Structure prediction request, 482 residues.
Amino acid sequence: MLRESSPVFRRLALMGAEAYEGAPMLHIEDIPWRPPSEAFRSFAGDARLAWLDSAALGDPRSRFSYLCLEPFSVLEAEGGVLRLDGVVQPGDPFALLARQLARFPLAPGVAPVPFLGGAVGYLGYELGHWLERLPARHPAVAGLPDMAIGLHDVILAFDTWEERCWLLSSGFPDLGEGRERRARLRAAQIRARLDGGRVPLASLPRLGWTPDLTSGEYEARVARVLGYIRAGDIFQANVTMAHRARRPPGLAPAALYLALRERSPAPFSAFLACGEVAIASASPERFLKLDVGGGIETRPIKGTRPRRADPAADRAEVTALVASEKDRAENLMIVDLMRNDLGRVAETGSVRVPELFTVESFAAVHHLVSAVEARLRPGLGPVDLLRATFPGGSVTGAPKIRAMEIIDEVEASRRGPYCGAIAWIGFDGAMDSSIIIRTLVVTPEEVVAQAGGGIVADSDPAAEYEEHCVKIRALLTVDEGP
Prediction:
């Protein structure tokens, strides 16, 4: 049900009855089923696309998959400059995103899937510098935007449980009488490409990794953070490290993602092609979900144990994770941080914690996960929610701003897309997003893998380094097969 206080309702009402009548129009074609991975191969060479894959079969968050194709507009932020389709824009990235979404309203409930088209892309960790005055010790990487988002009028949507597939086309950016004709034309163009055969992908070459820091150097930086905790500066900080590989000639980012998908399927798996940059993500962590009625959910992860081949040993890891006071304290701090962040935009009294210290198991690790829910205040929308909470507390620490200052001091390089978010924001005002962890970032020069963990008062530097190794192992062995 669309509440009268919801951002979409108000946006449509302000446009008048005629616009409201046109807003629900969405061209929908029920097309023959094929697995999303097969459909992806028809578009894998595109310079700009997003595959919101949700590859963990059996996970309720993995029911729907979306191929978002040929964006009609591109928003980028890089080096303090905003661009819309290559033209410099005033303001900040969040305001620009909100303005563009406001131009293209669709009423909810007109599609057979939660996402019916809209904004899709990534918000890099350093986008937080647009929100707070933060130090920036590390230079930006030329050609690697802090934000890259496409507005998609046409998507292929898949229900993997019922094995159904739809082609959805809104006709945007046309807002006039030609919109329906454009929607049908765009759908026909994508259908022809879908039936036109698979893009050949070269086999994945081997990657040679070099870490930013030695194990001893990483442990020393963890020890520095422990000093800040003992001094009372912070309660927790998330400390990470990158491994880098020179990009081999002929590397196809799509092939890299398919290898990662096979090795480490996750509920928020995604592949983004953003011009010269690509993101191959096997993230297990939801950042923010917002439904059209204003309901919010975030599911921060804190606490990790490795998977074991022996079932008894694997169960023992779960038992140890649940019993760990250190991991529970680490998780609880971030739950409190997220409650505080959501409270900035939530209806009074609506913030609650329905799940605390739940174990979720993935291909390579077990995680301790909690859920925080709330209801968005009337008059606010998805971009307001992002402003209030970005970047996610699970990848910063508490208190957030001081933790981010210390992160800039102790880490060896800029994070880039890592620890930011991959998000879709529908033209109907709904949103879902993941934290960019367990992710490979591909630039013209290199492939970057990063991992880390939350440091609290009783953290052991050597154990933190071992946790880093556990988390990053699937990324560093992606070229070795499943």
